Amino acid sequence: MRRWLGDDHPAVDDVVLAASELMTNAIRHSDARPYDLIGVTLSVTEEMVYLEVRDPGSAFSGPHIRQEPAAEDGRGLLIVREISQDWGVREHGRGLGRTVWCAIRSALPLPNRSPDEWTGTALADCSAGADLPEVSG
């Protein structure tokens, strides 16, 4: 994320945090099997950074914000909701997975970079023992 945005981007810390939370949820709560992939897409405009995490989905539940203040975990989507201007879920149909996305405000105009440098996609291997992608740069 830092490499895509650059350390000088005003939203980089929030985007890294949101990516970490959404990737963690995708890995922990989807029905990913060995060799399933989790995709990450980042798109940037002058006003917003759009982050999407696509996973295999779950037959048991959809993404939701937990309402248990005393819980020691389960705050990922609450954090994403608080740091983003908008967020949501797109279900792609039975067996086709889902995308959880968020939009985070960019406070400053983009530096001089080509449009290709502001959009990227990464895939994570969900097989047992696979290394997770580095979301912090």
From TrEMBL:
Cited Pfam families: HATPase_c_2
GO molecular-function terms, A-Z: ATP binding; protein serine/threonine kinase activity
Protein name per UniProt: ATP-binding protein
InterPro entries: Anti-sigma-factor_SerPK, HATPase_C_sf, HATPase_dom
Domain Histidine kinase/HSP90-like ATPase: 9-100
Keywords, alphabetical: ATP-binding, Kinase, Nucleotide-binding, Serine/threonine-protein kinase, Transferase
SUPFAM superfamilies, alphabetized: ATPase domain of HSP90 chaperone/DNA topoisomerase II/histidine kinase
Superkingdom field: Bacteria
